[in-house]
Design brief:
Layout (H helix, E strand, L loop, with lengths): L1 H7 L5 H16 L23 H5 L26 H4 L7 E7 L2 H12 L3 H18 L6 E5 L4 H7 L3 H9 L13 E3 L11 H8 L3 E3 L9 E9 L3 H12 L4 E9 L3 H8 L5
Parallel strand pairs: 1-6, 2-5, 5-6
Antiparallel strand pairs: 3-4
Helix pairs in contact: 6-8, 9-10
Length: 273
């Protein structure tokens, strides 16, 4: 009632005003309980990651044995420490790390973010990304975060950039500068990458990004944030563009990474002729 009056510009009585001040003080001293950003359950403790234990347990977080370049999970006995993809690809980035595997519940959640406009969920998963990355020491020192830019046409269609929402969630858990919007732009509306192989993805993204203010990336360490790492084509094209503009180094941090059974078999040496 009080809030509605304020919105309409109406005057409050002295009693209404004092009551609103009292309620604001109560909320400050005893903030309302946080709710899980996935299922809506009330959280027992107010933590920086607003997700309940049940929902956290369903996330397929990556293990310890990872490709040292792209972060793809490897079989426990895998030698060398590069996955099949990275042994056959030249990368422009220093390293990528992903919090979880793109499967099951997380796959559905990413679809929810991209196509069902669930912004709240994106922020919550960004918190998870930051917590995992911080615990495992994945975030490079003195890095600037850079959410993968969307082309203006796609941004207008969707209404938001999911990578920016992930960064928003991350910033509630870690304190890092973010490269200001507009420094790196996406100048091409690229074909949807679903169904394209690794080579086709790289051709599709060639020249897709542009640094509008090179002086703002020169000498900087940049950490590119995205929702999924599949072949690394997006991260590589961004890294190539940034290094050409004078960036010192480029890292990647993604919410998820795509892994298939054939990836694991190839990385372990099975099925080779």
């Amino acid at each position: 009632m009080v809030y509605n009056k304020l919105l309409r510009g109406k005057r409050l009585s002295i009693g209404e005003y004092l009551n609103s001040v009292l309620m604001a003080g109560i909320d400050l001293l005893f903030p309302p309980p946080a709710l899980c950003r996935v299922c809506g359950r009330q959280l027992v403790l107010n933590t920086r990651v607003e997700m309940c234990e049940l929902c956290l347990e369903q996330l397929p977080l990556v293990g310890e044995n990872l490709c040292r370049l792209c972060g793809r999970p490897l079989p426990a006995s895998a030698e060398p420490t590069l996955c099949f993809h990275c042994r056959n690809t030249r990368h422009f980035f220093v390293q990528n790390r992903a919090a979880a595997i793109y499967s099951g519940t997380l796959k559905e959640q990413i679809h929810e973010i991209k196509y069902r406009y669930n912004r709240r969920l994106a922020v919550g998963l960004g918190q998870v990304m930051a917590a995992v990355a911080n615990a495992r020491g994945w975030i490079p020192r003195k890095a600037h975060l850079l959410p993968v830019p969307l082309h203006p046409q796609r941004l207008q269609q969707r209404g938001y950039n999911q990578a920016e929402l992930l960064v928003q969630g991350m910033l509630s858990c870690i304190h890092l500068p973010v490269l200001e919007p507009g420094v790196v732009v996406r100048r091409q509306v690229t074909q949807a990458s679903t169904g394209l192989n690794a080579w086709e993805r790289r051709v599709n993204l060639k020249g897709a990004f542009y640094v509008s203010s090179p002086g703002k990336v020169v000498g900087k360490v940049l950490c590119v944030v995205d929702d999924i790492y599949t072949t690394g084509a997006t991260l590589d094209e961004l890294a190539r563009t940034l290094l050409k503009a004078g960036a010192k180094a480029v890292y990647g941090l993604t919410l998820s990474i795509a892994v298939s059974d054939s990836d694991l078999a190839a990385s372990s040496g099975e099925g080779r002729s």
